[in-house]
Amino acid sequence: MKSLNVNYMTRLDHLRFFAALLVIFVHIKGKIILAPEDFGLSGAFSSISNFIKNWIFNGSTGVSLFLVLTGFLFCIISDCGHKKIKYSGFIYNRILRIFPMMVLLAFIVITASRQTSTPMDIFRILTLQLNTGHKYTGWGHEFYPSGPIWTIGVEFQFYLLFPFLAFFLVRYGVKYLVGLATLIILIKYNLFILKGNGIYYNLYHSIIGRLDQFIIGMIFAVIYKSHFIENFKGKNISALCLMIVSLLVLMTCFGKKDTLSFTIEAICWGGVILAYLSMNLFNSKFVDKFLAKLGELSFSIYLLHLPIVDMLNRMFELSQPTTLTDSIIAFSWKIPVVVMIALLTFTLIEKPFMSLRVKYTS
User: 250, 244, 184: which is closest to 219 by C-alpha?
Assistant: First the structure.
């Protein structure tokens, strides 16, 4: 849906949909055993199975892509801080964009946990503490498959900071963002030393663990707006090389749980964003608009895919996939169902409130 504050960039919505797909893959995958026999092939094609296994089992990196995209987009909207941001208007728009679906899902959780629910659940919503209260994921997941709701709390905490970061970017330059990202990395290093690897999932679900990813998204927006990227645009071979290198480095981080894992993921996704925006693709307006529409639905897709998939599994008494073929079949029909329901919630819940947004940049 077009914004009042920036020219609409359809390819960012393409990437949002891709990020949502990655997260869905990791949640639908089941206990897949990928082997060459899954392809009816052997030998060299075993590397293909390993490649697919890496991406399916590490689809949670889609969350990192979401967060980098957020920092990138807001920095573009503010023209790297050169546009004046009206703080109240910015937060008002963010509430209209995020809260309707968040409140709907939160009250579904409260309904499912009515016997133990207290007014503190409402306080948790108002204070953006949806990323606390569960050992491994978001609040309420033990009562209803609402795990992904944790990202809303973290994203909105970033929204509260962004106008200040944009202002400091103009005042002190990009070195301020680099310094702040470095400080966050040092804090994470301190936590790893003091608490050990067990702190990883606390960082995974918190602003301290993720803030450098937002900031890196902003840094890549500055690069995108620079003369360097102007010379880079339209050169498909160079852009393709950047994308391949970024994805290969990203894959080397899969499974690592250390101080720099979130940071390296963010840098790699930043490279992918620059490459994708620079390539000459989609001469077909239909393909471009279709992917952009799917990207518009990504918020609903992300929040609702777990309860929808769990519902389908129970309705049809389905077991978890154990082979690549089973997984492909599961993806091929479950994802369209998720998309159709997401279209319904986007049309009835998200879009009406989005139409109330105001202009907050000048």
Answer: 184
DSSP 361: B
Task: Output the CA torsion 134→19→98→359 (10° steps).
Answer: 150
Euclidean distance between CA atoms 96 and 180, whole angstroms: 29
Joined together, the tokens standing for residue 39 give 């392809």
Mean pLDDT of the chain, nearest integer: 90
Bridge partners for 361 per DSSP: 85
Helix (H) / strand (E) element for 273: namely helix 261-278
Residue that wins the pLDDT comparison between 53 and 18: 18
Give the helix/strand (H/E) hosting 160: helix 150-172
- Token reading at 57: 């089992």
Cα separation, 320 vs 304, in Å, equals 19
pLDDT score for 41? 47
Per residue in 248-261, pLDDT (tens digit) is: 999 999 989 999 99
Q: How far apart are CA 343 and CA 297, in angstroms?
A: 6
Instruction: Note whether 5 and 360 are within 8 A (CB).
Output: yes
Q: Which amino acid is at 26?
A: V
**For residue 309, what is the DSSP state?**
H
Beta bridge partners of 85: 361
pLDDT at position 192 is 97
Interatomic CA distance for residues 218 and 80, integer angstroms? 8
Residue 305 near residue 145, CB atoms below 8 Å: no
CA distance 67 to 155: 7
How far are the Cα atoms of 75, 171, 340, 341 from residue 344, in angstroms, in the given order?
A: 30, 44, 7, 5
DSSP calls for 23-69: HHHHHH--S----GGGGT--GGGHHHHHHHHHHHHTTTHHHHHHHHH
DSSP 68-105: HHHHHHHHHHTTTTTS-B-HHHHHHHHHHHHHHHHHHH
Closest CA to 162 of 246, 77, 267, 57: 77
Tokens of 37: 């026999």
